[in-house]
Design goal:
- The protein is an alpha/beta fold and 251 residues long.
- It has a single domain, classed as Alpha-Beta Barrel (TIM Barrel), CATH 3.20.20.140.
- The chain contains 9 helices and 8 strands.
- The protein has an 8-stranded parallel sheet with strand order 1-2-3-4-5-6-7-8.
- Bound molecules: nickel (II) ion.
- The site of nickel (II) ion has 5 residues, from loops.
Length: 251
């Protein structure tokens, strides 16, 4: 049994959600946590958690939305996160990859949503790209908030900083890529703080790299972790489920 702790599920990417979920179940994926991180995808995400028993959500405004997210959006978000199947806030964070013009707005949006996480005792799902230092600095302002560093692909040193802060690392398809250095980081830190995720429809793991990703490929990521750590796929499943249940309250 597996849980995909972070993916996106939108009719923009998949023609038939029922088929996606059926294929997931056949592949041993019992539950998925989908992330809505724009105004529209938050509404779409919320519509699925009411309909599908095995679907949970994290919602929150992605840093790419920093210039267009209003206080009204955030007031609405505060109401939306109170749904019992919203298990966290995210993906939120900082993305300096495309330039730094909106860096202050990104940080402001990030902090406002960290405040919500603190107020409602919800974990956060962090998107951090080319912004490690500032991400760590802001997370440290909220020592009571815990979360998942989604799609982690940093150095061993960075991994250790996040772990020392009580954060989990979301590991997906990148670990299966031939030139990825992530494998050696995992071999150092082990599975204690690892969550499995696909980030589908992006970043499909080998042997389906380049294709549209789906939660059904989670076992390929687990298999790779097992190879790296000399563990059976069942052991990887058990351990990562434990981690998932410790962070997210999936009822
Ligand atoms: Ni994502």
């Amino acid at each position: 049994m597996f849980i995909d702790t972070h993916c996106h599920l939108s009719l923009e990417d998949y023609d038939d959600i029922d088929i996606v979920l059926k294929e997931n179940r056949e592949a041993g994926i019992d539950k998925i946590i989908i992330s809505g991180c724009t105004r529209e995808s938050i509404v779409e995400t919320l519509s699925y958690i009411d309909v599908y028993e095995d679907v949970y959500a994290t919602i929150g405004y992605h840093p790419s939305e920093a210039l267009i997210t209003s206080d009204d959006d955030l007031s609405l978000l505060e109401k939306q996160i109170q749904h019992h199947k919203v298990v966290g806030i995210g993906e939120i964070g900082l993305d300096y990859h495309y330039g730094k013009e909106d860096i202050l707005e990104q940080q402001d949006l990030f902090r406002k949503q960290m405040n919500l996480a603190q107020k409602y005792h919800l974990p956060v799902v962090i998107h951090s790209r080319d912004a490690t230092e500032d991400t760590i600095r802001i997370l440290k302002e909220y020592p009571n908030v815990k979360g998942d560093i989604h799609c982690f692909s940093g150095s061993l040193e960075t991994a250790r900083i996040y772990l020392s802060m009580g954060y989990y690392l979301g590991i997906g398809g990148v670990v299966t890529f031939k030139n990825s250095k992530l494998g050696s980081v995992i071999q150092e830190i082990g599975l204690d703080s690892i969550l499995l995720e696909t980030d589908s429809p992006y970043l499909a793991p080998e042997p389906n790299r380049g294709k549209k990703n789906s939660s059904k490929y989670i076992p390929d990521i687990a298999k790779k972790l097992g190879e790296l750590l000399d563990l059976s796929i069942d052991e990887v499943s058990r351990k990562t489920l434990q981690n998932t249940n410790r962070l997210f309250d999936l009822q």
